[in-house]
Amino acid sequence: MSSMPAPHAEAPGAVPRIGAGRILRRRALAHPGLMIGMGVIVAIAIAAVLAPFIAPHDPYAQDLGARLIPPVWHDGGSWTNPLGTDPFGRDYLSRLIYGARISLIIGFGAMAVALAIGTTMGVLAGYFGGWPDLAVTFVVNVRLALPTMLVALVVVALVGGSLTVIIWTLGLLMWDRFAVVMRTATLQIRNQEFVSAARAAGCSTARLLLTELLPNVTGPLIVVATLEVAQAILLEAALSFLGLGVQPPVPSWGLMISEGKSHMFFRPWIIAIPGTVLFILVLSINLLGDGIRDVTSPEGRS
Q1: Does residue 174 contact residue 231 with C-beta atoms inside 8 Å?
Q2: Model confidence over 61-117: pLDDT tens digits?
Q3: Is 80 contained in some domain?
Q4: Which of 55, 71, 191, 236 is the most exposed, fewest CB within 10 Å of its CB?
Q5: pLDDT at residue 196 above 70?
Q6: In a domain? residue 39
Q7: Distance between CA atoms of residues 141 and 148, nearest Å
């Protein structure tokens, strides 16, 4: 009597199946932009978290006798202040490290506020349709008619430039992209079989949205979130440069550029250093978002 084959035994010569997680990991590791962007962001985040331990000096300590010391690669530079000092004699490297905290807190904080508002509105509009869809579309059109930078300038000028005010102001001005993308993604899957099956099984609307619908739109949600983080960081830097963002002496990359603009023709490094770091961070976030889009896309773009 011959023995029965094992239920999960693969036929001879069959190609072994690879899990979706392993495929995504392989695509991610093979995507240079994603890996570079992630590496730079992780390095900046670690530096921001460990700022009290790795910063060589107090970022608020002023020494008027050591004003505008050039970086170590310029004549007159010193390893005591590797990136030099600002017009108030504060160590530039220490202020850059602590400034990463401000940029990341504002970027991710504003993104979280925008994500909560925009995702809720977009999912509800896409799932229910009808008058909720019309209402959300009208509110999105109103929001798109408002210039983000101008409204942020007015609000911050009237209320003040504290960290909390900037986060909420930017978050309340950046939710429209989440709403549009989530509405489109929800429209594409709301009539899929797994959603209909969950509805037929008696799932409540809240449970269906949270457990069936939202997990299947996380791909575009993550991509939009990375783009919004970069936009929030740039907007905060612009507000600080105009003197309406984070107020001195709090270290902010935009504020550092603003404080050094009067010396830019004779000491260009004083705005080149924070400007370069800001450029690298925003570029890395965009590379990460593009990489996530390519890795998670159905066609597996590279």
Answers
A1: yes
A2: 888 888 888 898 888 888 888 998 888 889 999 999 999 999 899 999 999 999 999
A3: no
A4: 191
A5: yes
A6: no
A7: 13
Which residues fall within 8 angstroms of residue 167, CB to CB, at 6 or more apart?
105, 106, 109, 110, 113
How far does CA 103 lie from the centroid of its chain? 10
Are 106 and 285 in contact by the 8 Å Cβ rule? The answer is no
Residues whose CB falls within 8 Å of the CB of residue 61, separated by 6 or more in sequence, listed in order? 90, 91
**Residue 252: predicted pLDDT:** 86
Number of domains in the chain: 1
Q: Which two tokens stand for residue 234?
A: 């740039």
Strand partners, 81: 78
- Could you tell me if residue 204 is inside a domain? yes
* Residue in the structure block whose two tokens are 């970022």: 59
Contacts of 131 (CB under 8 A, 6+ apart): none
- Is 184 inside any structural domain? yes
Instruction: Give CA angle at 279 (275, 280), nearest 5°.
Output: 120
CATH number at residue 209: 1.10.3720.10
Coil/strand/helix, residue 74: coil
Provide the greatest CA pair distance for the chain. 96
Q: What is the tens place of the pLDDT at every residue in 272-286?
A: 999 999 999 999 999
Range of the domain at 98: 94-296
Residue 197 pLDDT class (50, 70, 90 cuts): confident
